[in-house]
Every structure is written in structure tokens, then in C-alpha cells.
Amino acid sequence: QTVVTQEPSFSVSPGGTVTLTCGLSSGSVSPRFYPSWYQQTPGQAPRTLIYNTNTRSSGVPDRFSGSILGNKAALSITGAQAEDDSDYYCVLYMGGGIWVFGGGTKLTVL
Amino acid sequence: QVQLVESGGGVVQPGGSLRLACAGSGFTFRSYGMHWVRQAPGKGLEWAAFIRYDEENKYYVDSVKGRFTISRDNSKSTLYLQMNSLRAEDTAVYYCVKDGTEYGDYEDYYYMDVWGKGTTVTVSS
């Protein structure tokens, strides 16, 4: 059973930088998993931020960036703003038509 | 503007059935794969099912295999999810999601692109 791991929670000060990660319970995340990232505020549908490790979706501010850091995928927010206070989910493509979400990270901007 | 509108949610008893629908507009529906993603109350997102643009391949998370069927009618730009033998743990908001890769694209990036607002399914006696 593949488990995609994320930090349950994180906090950042307004204007600060934060990096959220996305790992595997067994093994390393690499670009072949096509990591993508989604933002969700309470009561709203998710919004696509990043796909293919580091490609920003249309309309996403450039303070959001994706990368591979060590053995994990990473989402960085540089210059965090109050409206970035949200839940963030990563997804890995496992092959064979199967996608797996991480458990999500609740980011608090305060 | 790409739009996805889900319908068909409601309250159903355990063991019952429900059929969700998702109407797509603002894009060439028949050229894109489509996903269903669900979210139980207070929980995270869970990918549930995917169907290729031409319905040739369908994939499911293990927990719904044999109970849920994803399908599409490209002539109506509509995606469906037939849910049978429903259980309490199927209670969730169900999102219809457009895949990010168009048929004919040079490369597939395996991601979810545009999301609907969701429809709520409650399984309870």
C-alpha cells in the first residue's frame, strides 16, 4: 500500500518563505511520478497550482514554485500572503492509471 | 471558460445506488480524460476514478472497484459515476475534474486541471 506523506501542518509569517514536502512511505519521489500540487480553502473546490514537478498552472502567482528536494517533491511559497492560508495537497502518478493524494498540509499564515 | 457542473448527489441508504453526472462546457470534452475525486467530511482529497478521452480505459481506487463505474457520453459532454452498494465511508463531496492532457498532446503530464464545485453524497440510514 503506497502512502504519500505530507506535513500535517505548517505556519509562516506574512512575507516569509515556506517549503512543503511530498514524500513516499517507501522510496523516493522523482519527476517520473509527475508530482502536482493543489490548494484548497475551506468550503471551496481545490485549485491546481503546479504540475509536472515545477510548471505553474495558468494564473498562479510566481511566488509558488515546485521542485524536487532530496527524495521528495516540494512546494515553496516565497513572500507568503494572507490569502495563502489554505490546505495544500500533492498528488503522485503511480503509473497504470493510478493517482494517489497526500494527506494534505494545513498552512497557517500568521 | 472551462466549466464543470456536477449533479445527482443526495442522501441514500447503505447498500443503495446513486448516479452522479458532470456536464462539461468551454472545452472540447471528447479530447480530455476525466477524473472523479472525493473528499469525506473533514478529511483530505482522494482520487476515485479516471476515464480516458475515448472511454477505452477506466481506472479506480481499490476501495471502489467493483462497486463504482465511471463512464462518459461525449455527444452530451457529460461524465458519469454510477455508485452501487454504497457504504457509510462513501459519504463525501464528489468532484468532477478535467485532466490536464489533451488527446494528441506531445506528452502526458498526468495531472488534474480544472475542478467542478462538487456534489455531496451522504450514505446513511
General form of chain A: globular
What characterizes the major β-sheet of chain A?
7 strands, mixed
Run of helices and strands of chain A:
EEEEEEEEEEE
Structural class of chain B: mainly beta
> If you average the pLDDT of chain B, what whole number results?
97
Please state the average pLDDT score of chain A.
97
Low-confidence stretches of chain A: none
Labels describing this entry:
heterodimer; A: 110 residues; mainly beta; seven-stranded mixed sheet; four-stranded antiparallel sheet; B: 125 residues; 11 strands; globular
Characterize the structure shown.
The complex is a heterodimer of chains A (110) and B (125). Chain A is 0% helix and 54% strand. With 110 residues, chain A is mainly β. In chain A, strands 2, 4, 5, 6, 9, 10 and 11 form a seven-stranded mixed β-sheet that branches. Chain A has a four-stranded antiparallel β-sheet with strand order 1-3-8-7, with no helix packed on it. Chain A is globular. In chain A, 40% of the residues are buried. The model of chain A has no long low-confidence stretch (mean pLDDT 97). Chain B is mainly β. In chain B, strands 2, 4, 5, 6, 9, 10 and 11 form a seven-stranded mixed β-sheet that branches. Chain B has a four-stranded antiparallel β-sheet with strand order 1-3-8-7, with no helix packed on it. Chain B contains no helices and eleven strands. The N and C termini of chain B lie far apart (40 Å). Chain B has strands spanning 3-7, 10-12, 18-25, 32-39, 45-51, 58-60, 68-73, 78-83, 92-102, 112-115, 119-123. At the A-B interface, strand 4, strand 5, strand 9 and strand 10 of A face strand 5 and strand 10 of B.
